[in-house]
Every structure is written in C-alpha cells, then in structure tokens.
C-alpha cells in the first residue's frame, strides 16, 4: 500500500489501515515503515468482526501460500513481530463517499490479498 499510495490517490482513493496493535505499537510501526496514511488501532477487533473477517486456523497463517509471501516480505521489507491475534485474517474494502461498500475481499489465509492493479481498477470505475 505504501509503495503505491500515489496510485491510490490518483485514482481518487484514500487509504486507511486497521491494525490489532495497541496505539504505541501502531505508532512505532507507522514510523518504522514510513506510512503516509492513517493506521487505525483496533486491539479489540471490533472492525474485524463488523466487516465479517474470520479467524483462521494454523494452515491459514502458516501454510504454503503464507510461507512464500512471508519470505518475499522478509526479503523486501524485513521481518515484523505479529501483534494481537495471530489467527485473525484480514481483508480489503473500498467504501464510497456515501459509506457503501463497493468492493470487499475477505482473506482466506494470511497471504491472501488482492493485487494493487485490481484495487486501482475498482477505484477508477467508481
């Protein structure tokens, strides 16, 4: 998201990331990775439940798909320590200015994230 932030802005989008981290941890993460967008703290996972994001099992957070993506992330960005519920799966949502969800991707495993080009195409279609 960080590396493509300008593309999101050019497509008319605004980025916000929700994290399970406590405020102090989230602030340190945001600074470490120089995130140009808000990182919202949700240690109680209220937003996760509201958006229907499920908890996974061991294979969902440590299976083959996750190892491949994790190795790539380690090489490109460094390793991070998981915060909060390590079994909590994430998602990506595009919400229009009227508050309507126009795109929803609920991850089926930890490495299941939509491609940037797909998200930009959705934004540009709105």
Account of the 3D structure:
With 126 residues, the chain is an alpha+beta fold. Helices cover 40% and strands 13% of the residues. It has 6 helices and 4 strands. It has helices at 5-10, 23-32, 46-50, 58-62, 64-77, 116-125; strands spanning 17-19, 39-41, 91-95, 101-106. The strands form 2 sheets. The chain has a two-stranded parallel sheet with strand order 1-2. Strands 3-4 form a two-stranded antiparallel sheet. A hairpin with a 5-residue loop joins strand 3 and strand 4. The longest helix has 14 residues, at 64-77. The protein is globular. The two termini are 19 Å apart. 6% of the residues are buried. The model has no long low-confidence stretch (mean pLDDT 86).
Helix content: 25-40%
> What amount of the residues lies in strands?
5-15%
Task: Determine the structural class based on helices, strands and strand pairing.
Answer: alpha+beta
Rg calculated over all Cα atoms: 15 Å
Poorly predicted tracts of residues: none
Q: Largest beta sheet: what is the strand line-up?
A: 1-2
Order of helices and strands: HEHEHHHEEH
Number of helical elements = 6
Alpha carbon gap, first and last residue: 19 Å
> Could you give a short account of the major beta sheet?
2 strands, parallel
Task: Summarize this entry quickly.
The protein has helices at about 5-10, 25-30, 45-50, 60, 65-75, 115-125, and strands at about 15-20, 40, 90-95, 100-105. It is α+β, with helices and mostly antiparallel strands.
Observed structural traits:
single chain; 126 residues; alpha+beta; two-stranded antiparallel sheet; 4 strands
């Amino acid at each position: 998201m960080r590396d493509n932030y300008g593309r999101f802005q050019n497509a008319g989008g605004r980025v916000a990331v929700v994290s399970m981290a406590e405020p102090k941890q989230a602030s340190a993460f945001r600074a470490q990775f120089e995130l140009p967008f808000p990182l919202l703290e949700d240690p109680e996972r209220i937003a996760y439940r509201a958006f229907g994001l499920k908890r996974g099992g061991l294979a969902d957070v440590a299976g083959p798909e996750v190892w491949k993506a994790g190795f790539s992330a380690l090489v490109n960005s460094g390793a991070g320590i998981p915060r909060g519920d390590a079994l909590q799966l994430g998602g990506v949502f595009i919400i229009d200015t009227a508050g309507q969800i126009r795109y929803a991707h609920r991850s089926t495993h930890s490495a299941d994230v939509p491609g940037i080009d797909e998200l930009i195409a959705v934004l540009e279609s709105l």
